[in-house]
Specification:
The protein is an alpha/beta fold. Helix content is 49%, strand content 13%.
Length: 706
Amino acid sequence: MSRPVARRAKPVPLRTHWFVLTILLICLASMLLLNGYTHHMFGAEPDGAVKPTGGAAGVPRAIAKGGPVIDAGTGQPRSVSPRPRTIALTFDDGPDPVWTPKVLDVLRAQKVHATFFVVGTAVAAHPELARRIVAEGHQIAVHTFTHANLANAAGWRRDLELRQSQLILAGATGVSTTLLRPPYSSEPSALTDRDWAALQDARAAGYLSVLTSQDSEDWRRPGTTQVIANSMPRSAAGQVLLMHDAGGDRSQTVEALSKLIPRLKARGFRFATVSDAVGLPDPTRKTSAVDRGRGLAVIWAMRISDVVLKILTWLLYVAGALSVLRAITTVVAARRHARMRDLSWGPPVTEPVSVIVPAYNESAGIEAAIRSLVASDHPLEVIVVDDGSSDGTADLVESLRIPGVRVIRQANAGKPVALNTGLRAARFDLIVMVDGDTVFEPDAVRMLIQPFADPAVGAVSGNAKVGNRGGLLGRWQHIEYVIGFNLDRRLFDLAECMPTVPGAVGGFRRTALERIGGLSDVTLAEDTDLTMALCRDGWRVVYEERAVAWTEAPASLGALWRQRYRWCYGTMQAMWKHRGAMVQRGTAGKFGRRGLTYLMLFQVLLPLLAPVVDVFSLYGLVFLNPMRVLLVWIAFLVIQLGMGIYAFRLDGERAGPLWTLPLQQFVYRQLMYLVVIQSAFTALAGTRLRWQRMERYGSLQAPANT
C-alpha cells in the first residue's frame, strides 16, 4: 500500500465571519479575564487572619511610632493622629447590599459621619450604595479593587488595583479620593518593609494611607459586648477605629454601633470623618466627565462579564448533559442492536446487483475499487459514470477490459447527476452506490443486499471503515468512524430513523429511488438528502454491519476540513429541506421527530457548544482549581474511552488506536467544531457551495486475487 503524500492546501482568503468570530473571541477572553481577576483573585481572608511577615528595618521610626494617617512621600515621611476626644469611625470591605444600608441607617439616626473604605468590585456590584454613602455626607475612600494584599503584590498589580478602584469610584459616584487603606493593614507599629514599600508606591500614585489606631475586631465575631469593649478608647487620645460593613455577617457590628455611639458621646467624644479628625482638606474631588464615563464603562464591563460567565456556565451544563446523554443512548442502543445481529432478514437474496460508481478525476484509486467489486462473491454489473474527468479516469477503466464493467461518459454535471445517469443505465432492481475510492470486501455486496428480503426496506447502509489509518490523522478518523458514525448508525437502525446511507457503501431498491425521483442536487450531501427522502416516503432504512468496505480518508488537515465542511453544510441543508418530517405521521414522522432531533442536538448543537467547554476549561485552569478541572476532563475522557472500547469490540477492531484519543481532544476536536461553526454561518448567510471533489491518493489496494 503506497504512502499518501500530503499536498499543500491552497490559501483560504479571510472571510468576514471568521473576522467577526475572532473579534468575539477576543471580547469573550477579555470578559473572562476580567471576571476571573475580580472574582477569583479577590482577597477573601479576614483582615486579622493575615499576619505581617518580614523585617521592619526600613520603616522610619517616626512612622512606626506615629499616627495612623501617613504621608509616605520621598521627602520626610510624616504621619498624623486624630485630635483628642475625636473618633474617626471607618468601615472596610463594603459596600454590602445587606449590612451597609443598616450601618448607614444607624449613622443617620445618630447624626454621625464616618469614612467608608470601599472595594472596587463591591462598588461595581452596588453603585447605588456608594452614591448613598456620598449623598449622606460620609467620606468615601479606596480599599483597592479586589481587596488585594498590596504588600505581596507585584508593581503592575498595585498600579492596577489603585487605578481600577479609582475609576469605578468615579463611575459610580462622580468623585475621586486621595485616601487609601491597604487591605490587611493595622497599626503603624505593625508595618513591615514590604508594607512600607507598598505605602510608598501608593504615595507616588497620589494617596495618603490610612491605618488604624484601634481595632474593634468585629471580623472575629466575638459578640456584641466584646466588639463594644474592643472599640472603647483607653484614654482621651483620638482614634481611627476599624470596623466592617461587609465580609460576612455583620449583625454584631450593627448592634454594637447603635450602642457604642451614644456611650462615647456621653463621655465627651465627638465623631468625624478621617480628614476632619486629623485636620486635612477634603480628599474627595469631582471627576471629569471623561473619567466618569471610563468608570461607568468598567462597571458595565464587569456586569457583562458576570452575565457572560453565567451564560457559559449554563451552556457548560447543557453540553455536559448532552455528552452524557449521547453516551448513554448510543451504548444502550448498540447493545440492543448487537443482540439482533443474528436475526435473519428472510430468505437469502440472490438476485444480481447493479453497482454504480460516479467518478470525477479518480484515476488514483479507481482501479482498486473496480477490481474489488468484480472480486465479489455475488453476481453484479459495474457501471462507471465518468463525470467529465480530466485525468483519464474513463480511459483507465476501459483499458482494464474487465468483463461486466461499463463506462458511461458525460460532461461534468456533479455527483447526483452522475448517479442518476448510472441509475437509468442499470439493468437490475437492486442498486449499490460506491465512491471511486472505496474498496469492498469480497462478501460486502452480498451482505449489503440481504436486508432487501424485507419488502419494507428501501435502503441499506454498509459499514465504511478507514483504510489509510496510519499516522495520527488517520487514526483519529478511524476512531471517529467506529465510535461516532457506526455507533450512531446502530442507534438510528434501532430507532428506525437512519438519516444517512454513506456514499461509500450503500444499497438501494430501485423502485424506492424511482418513486422519489432519483437523486437531488439541491444539497451538498446528496447521500443524506436521498436517505431522508426515502424515510419520508415511508421506506425503512437499515444498517448492515457485515457489509464492510474500506474508504480512503483525507490525509491532510486541509483536505479533512473541506470534506467535513461539505458533509456538515450539506447535512444542514438536508435537515432544513426535510424539516416537514417533524410534523408528519407514520414512518416519516418517526424519522423527523427522532432522527432530525438527534441530529440537531448531537451533531449541530453539541459541537456548537464544544468551544464553551474549551473556554471554560482554560478559565478553570487559570482562575479555579486546576486539579478539579483536570479531574472533570479525565472523567469525560474515561467516558469516551469506555465508549471507544465497546464500539471497537462491536466492530471487531483492535483497541490499539485508542491511545491517541486524549491527543484527539486538542486538534481534531477543535477542527470538527470549527467546521460546524463555519457551516452554521454559511447556512445563515444563505451561501450556495458547489460540489467539491476529494483529493485522492490511491492508498487502498484491491484484494490480491483480482
